[in-house]
Amino acid sequence: xxTVNSDSLQSVxxxxxxxxxxxxxxxxxxxxxxxxxxxxxxxxxxxAAFFPSINLTSxxxxxxxxxxxxxxxxxxxxxxxxxxxxxxxxxxxxxANLDIAEIRQQQSVVNYEQKIQNAFKEVADALALRQxxxxxxxxxxxxxxxxxxxxxxxxxxxxxxxxxxxxxLDAERSLFATRQTLLDLNYARQVNExxxxxxxxxxxxx
Length: 206
Prior knowledge:
Number of strands: 2
Subcellular location: Cell outer membrane
InterPro entries: MdtP/NodT-like, OMP_efflux
Structural class: mainly alpha
Shape: rod-shaped
Largest sheet: 2 strands, antiparallel
Mean pLDDT: 88
Radius of gyration: 25 Å
Helix content: 55-70%
Number of helices: 7
CATH superfamily: Outer membrane efflux proteins (OEP)
Membrane topology: Lipid-anchor
Keywords: Coiled coil
Low-confidence stretches: 92-96
Strand order of the largest sheet: 1-2
Main location: membrane
């Protein structure tokens, strides 16, 4: 009979306390920062104002509370409030003293903030789906184990003439369907791993 080799389909392990600094290697954020530099912006000041410096993960493969708190629980809207502690634009006293509302009139800043929000959202969504898939896979693996016992009992009872062969067929069909569900879930998890890898800018240091 076909079996699911769960050992070969294990989820890739993420380190606990994975820093959000890893997102700075994303091509879209790098491109947005180059646009800011072209507009005479201080990148360090822009990051301090708009880029949340948090841990993305709190435990292995799970999203941190800091990451979750960046988004409104009901609407999913961005919750992070930027603060300007160092002037973002270096050219001229007037630009150096701009507040958040005025700075957001700069297209390069708008683009930078949008790219940051999108990056954190993609990571949060990928981690949430990852946890959901892992939970579903664990539940299906437990169910599969119980069905294997059910099938063994049905075969034993059939050999002793206690049940018809239909009982054996029903148990085999349930087992096959659950194995197929596990294969589908493991495929979905592999796709999710790729999405998470991409969202994190191409991987992380182990």
